[in-house]
Records
---
Amino acid sequence: MVFALLPLLGVRGVPPLRALRHGFDVEEAGPSGGERVPQAAVLGLLAATVGALCLWQAPSAEIGFGFAGGLGVATALLAGTAVALARSTRALLPRGASYPLRQGISNLFRPLNQTLSMTLTIGGGAFLLAGILGVQDSLRARFSVDDAAGRPNLLLFDVQPDQRAGVVEILANGGASVVEAAPIVPSRIAAIGGRGMDELRADTASRVPRRWALNRTYRNTYRADPTDTEEVVAGGWWSGPWRGGGL
């Protein structure tokens, strides 16, 4: 709603009958002295709103002020370009130019022209596209996809032992192969610290895990040796015979 205040200021002094007539008077092309103060106030409110949005969305105040300042500098440069374009074309317009060319260039600085607004709109769109492309290049530089041969790109869950041969055959018919088959052991939490699930769910005062962590099904795996991508950070890898009970 703040951005709609500026165009609505010009409607205040328009009589209802004028809206039914065609054309405009030249003396209405620019704001009067009494309208400049409200316009300046609205422009200040717009700048404050943009600055507040930048500070709200930015992770820190320094970044927010920097982004708001960059927008202000870009807007000032685009506005200066529009003014310089209108003045230079008027001064450099050749006298012997054709009528369509003279009429088209004259529209850049005619009363109620849209040179400034169009320049700001096109420049703002180009500024936005440049920002998106910059973010895209930055993200691509941080993330790299390793598509080397032998890297899996499909993961299948809940393949039963009697279904494995059929799944392998289907993959082979499609030109794919099984890189690794890992056993999955589904499990659920039965107790934590000697406290059963019913007691943990009823406890809302102490720091217990969230309800989804208590109710979900965990899928675990096991293997004889760690893979190349795994590292034991504490203790040692158990390799002796197991003498305890089963799972």
---
Amino acid sequence: MEIKLALFVNQIGYVLDGTKFAYATGLAGGESFELCSKADGAVVFTGQSNPPITDRVAGEPVCCLDFSSFKTAGTYFIRVTAKDGKTAQSEPVNIGTGLYDDIYFSILYYFYLSRCGQDTVDNKFNKWGHPACHATPAVIYGTDVKKEVNGGWHDAGDYGRYIVAASKAVMDLLMAYEAGNCERSAVTRHCKRSAVTRHCERSAAISFDILAEVRFELEWMLKMQRPDGGVFHKVSCYHFCGFINPQDEKDELVISPVSSTATADFAGCLAFASEFYKSSDPAFAKSLMNAALKAWKYLETHDDELFKNPPEITTGGYGDWSSADERYFACAALFLRTGDQTYVSRAMEIRNSIIDKPDNPDFPWINKWHEGFGWGMVAGYGTELFLRAKDKINDDSVVQTLTNSILSHADKLLDRVNKASFGTVLDKVHWGSCGHVCDDAHSLLVAYDLTGRTEYYEAAKKQIDYVLGCNPNNVCYVTGFGANTVKYPHHRPSATLGDAMPGMLSGGPCEGLYDAAAKEKLGPLNLPPLRCFIDDWASYSTNEIAIYWNSTLVYVASKLKLV
């Protein structure tokens, strides 16, 4: 693969007083670079490129360019000359305050536009609203019984609604709300700034309150619980539809069977959420907590029910090899809200049942425990919640064990970042890698909260840089933003209208190339993992979107105080 001289920057911008890194290929290290005014080309800062780093996922030497000490607001570009005399110029470099207001608003607005079963009115873009969809009762699989399960958010590029995905998205958004330190929502606080105020003033009919938006999802989740406490895994049609608008999918809806992972995620998510509505709607808060307790009782009285699609259903499975991490998370949330020590002992019993198992040489990912924040490994949420309530835990050894565990995980991530060509946490590039980057940033930020060590914080910031342009594809992976943005996401409304809905985080590179478009167009090129991305409507393995990728980006941006 030819190594070209090229520059990569965060295409949204850099906070005035924060660290500022760009990246370059085609340099040997030690070359001078210039930061120049976009207005007149005047050189305002000079620096030297760092020694190159090569890792497996980038597959080429990459130099870091540090201009953190420059703190004057404006629009600039970086210029560099290689030792062979070739020159390169970067995309615009924005430095200042308020740079993230519009993108942050749009990432949140996506959730409103993804509402199911309700008329949505798009007063920002005047394009993405839709009539109520999927409003007919759904049949419970294996029966003739029909149930009304209207509501919730469309999950991803398709129109299914899945409990495990919903639970993660809700957790991220509520934690983002907390990080916003405002009375009603992170968005409300930012409405003082023009980029968001403009959109908020255009319609009083749409609420941009995070708690109001999350409540819409929670009300749907409540409908997915059986009277005995078990929670149905998902509701969808039997098969994925083509590229059509949501109101045009008219096939029969089917509710898939109860699963342990859905039930446990539901218990943890609703228990955590209950506190947020106590003052504004005590009855709703109580209904959330009661539903969580009922789900936990079901889990403790039933054998594991791991989900696998019934033969007639081919929509997203969201299967799992274990429900241990979900149960652990549920225990943590229930302990946080009740203070009952039995949840601590039960959580540690569940945790140890996995940690003590030997490695599986045939399937190395099975029987593995890590402090993850993805939909398939939610132990990180559990550990974070336990450590929030560490003063209430009677056993000091539990607190020490959990602290050591999450810091050990964060240290591994930090080591990867320090050795990575583009400063990412990625050592393998799986489906949804941009979401994984943000989930791992969450881990780093928990470690920062526990220790105050700025290395964790700065490593988390580098993940945002990567997603927003500091990557070998020179792409801002959020639709509608950046000099080089994703234009053709695997998202049915976007494909149908021939235009990308702004504010969606693409899943990004996937070295597995699981879809036909990626295999056909990228397979013969033998690219490094981080280059395994194609901006194509059909590439669901490299360019789909999902509620839980947007939600994790919202959380990290809130926690880093980018808005």
